[in-house]
Write a structure and sequence with these properties.
Elements: E1 8-11, E2 20-27, E3 32-35, E4 40-45, E5 55-60, E6 63-64, E7 68-72, E8 76-78, E9 80-85, E10 88-93
Antiparallel strand pairs: 1-2, 1-7, 2-3, 3-6, 4-5, 7-8, 9-10
Bound molecules: zinc ion.
Zinc ion binds at residues 72, 74-75, 78, 93, 95-96, 98.
């Protein structure tokens, strides 16, 4: 998994194509990610006691990591490359070569 929590990404396929948002969670075993405000499903919530009346709530559902591109602060959506130095592996933008977060 090249993507990490907190990465800025753009959705490239599906009903949310073109949306830019931030990764809330990654699921490395399934290759899926949860992106804030993307692939939102309406969920019917049962009333749970007096405080929670129930009703319909919006819930973000995970999408496949291949459906997004990382967003470089200079170039916009880009592909991830790697750079190695004595501190280890760094993710870079393939367009400008700048470090990604
Ligand atoms: Zn760039």
């Amino acid at each position: 998994m090249k993507l990490k929590t907190g990465d800025k990404v753009m959705v490239i396929t599906g009903k949310d194509a073109g949306t830019e948002s931030v990764i809330e969670r990654v699921y490395p075993s399934s290759g899926k990610i949860l992106v804030e405000g993307v692939n939102t499903a309406k969920k019917h919530q049962k009333p749970l006691g007096q405080q929670n009346q129930g009703g319909i709530i919006d819930r973000d559902m995970p999408i496949d990591a291949s459906n997004v591109m990382i967003v470089c602060s200079k170039c916009g959506p880009t592909r991830i490359g790697y750079r190695f130095d004595d501190k280890g592996k760094h993710r870079i933008c393939r367009k400008c070569g700048g470090d990604l977060r």
